[in-house]
């Protein structure tokens, strides 16, 4: 069984010297073009006729307004140890990242799911980074100090190297007076 590669996608600002991703169960900013980037990347399958999957923690699922759940045109997986049933609208409930990876790496889903995206929050990102199957981290660097209570984990810059991809604009972006950059880190192991 060939296990699927994992891609992480996150946007992080600077917050007390750390990489802030959330506050009070929500995003600390509202940047439409950045959201559109998330949607484009997570939706676009490389293999024709296949769909991508998104894996997220229960609180991240809860943070998505009901009208935008599930994230459309993607297979939605929620990780939880407290839920006993898949939340309405989601496709699968798993009790660990490993279980989700196995689900997508064996039939029937291995034949219909193309890219697997980890979309947060903190502990799920950490599990993704620690996984030998982690391929890329798509990290939007929001160049502003904003108060946060949830953080992106530190990762090893000897293992993850900054790369470029023609599908991703390297220029500094700006929305609502906030500057940000799309970065991609690729695992060398
Ligand atoms: N900036 C960004 O890119 C970004 C992306 C995503 C989220 N966010 C923000 O981050 C915050 C939410 O993230 P969070 O870190 O607080 O929570 P989270 O990771 O979304 O959810 C935590 C919950 O997920 C379940 N869980 C997590 N890891 C698991 C694992 N390995 N196996 C099984 N279950 C697992 C547990 O659910 P149970 O308690 O049910 O067991 C845990 O309590 C919000 O503020 C959100 O807006 C930001």
Automatic annotation (TrEMBL):
Pathway per its UniProt entry is: Cofactor biosynthesis; tetrahydrofolate biosynthesis; 5,6,7,8-tetrahydrofolate from 7,8-dihydrofolate: step 1/1
The record's listing under InterPro entries reads:
DHFR (IPR012259), DHFR-like_dom_sf (IPR024072), DHFR_CS (IPR017925), DHFR_dom (IPR001796)
Q: Report the GO molecular function annotations.
A: dihydrofolate reductase activity; NADP binding
UniProt entry keywords in alphabetical sequence: NADP, One-carbon metabolism, Oxidoreductase
User: What reaction does this catalyse?
Assistant: (6S)-5,6,7,8-tetrahydrofolate + NADP(+) = 7,8-dihydrofolate + NADPH + H(+)
GO biological process terms, alphabetically, are: dihydrofolate metabolic process; folic acid metabolic process; one-carbon metabolic process; tetrahydrofolate biosynthetic process
What is the name of the protein in this document?
A: dihydrofolate reductase
Q: From which organism does this entry originate?
A: Strongylocentrotus purpuratus
């Amino acid at each position: 069984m060939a296990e699927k590669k994992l891609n992480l996608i996150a946007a992080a600002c600077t917050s007390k010297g750390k990489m802030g991703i959330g506050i009070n169960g929500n995003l600390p900013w509202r940047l439409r073009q950045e959201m559109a980037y998330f949607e484009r990347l997570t939706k676009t399958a490389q293999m024709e006729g296949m769909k991508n999957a998104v894996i997220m923690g229960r609180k991240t699922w809860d943070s998505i307004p009901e009208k935008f759940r599930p994230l459309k045109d993607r297979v939605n997986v929620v990780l939880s140890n407290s839920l006993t049933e898949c939340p309405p609208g989601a496709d699968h409930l798993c009790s660990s990242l490993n279980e989700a990876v196995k689900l997508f790496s064996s039939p029937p889903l291995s034949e219909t799911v193309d890219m697997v995206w980890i979309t947060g929050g903190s502990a799920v990102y950490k599990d993704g980074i620690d996984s030998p199957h982690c391929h890329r981290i798509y990290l939007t660097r929001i160049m502003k100090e904003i108060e946060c209570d949830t953080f992106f984990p530190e990762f090893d810059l000897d293992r993850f190297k900054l790369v470029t991809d023609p599908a991703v604009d390297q220029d500094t972006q700006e929305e609502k007076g906030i500057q940000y950059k799309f970065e991609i880190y690729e695992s060398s192991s």
